[in-house]
User: What shape does this take?
Amino acid sequence: MTQKRYVVKGSVAETMDLIKFSQPANDLVFEELRSFGEFQQGMLTYEQSALRPGSHTSLFIVVHDFNHVTEVTMITTGGSGTLFNIDWGAAKGIVSSVKSSLKPVLINEVKMPD
Assistant: This one.
């Protein structure tokens, strides 16, 4: 499992559009944008096509601006096999592709709790 959090410039909706544009090879299985007064929260969930038989990777992305700062949190899950949960690097690859798309608006990376 890979976890990353970034602070970015721009609105929640703009950030979600930027992420969606960067992920044409992955299946978007869920998308939601909600407003809470002046704040917003969005969620994107992707499934990555199997690179190896029996393998899968899912990416959950939450974008919010609850503190008047837009944050993007990414969590991956998945793996390969029934006895062992082997990643084969797919989780880091999908997170890296999203981070690359955020470079033009990236302010900084936030340390995630252990």
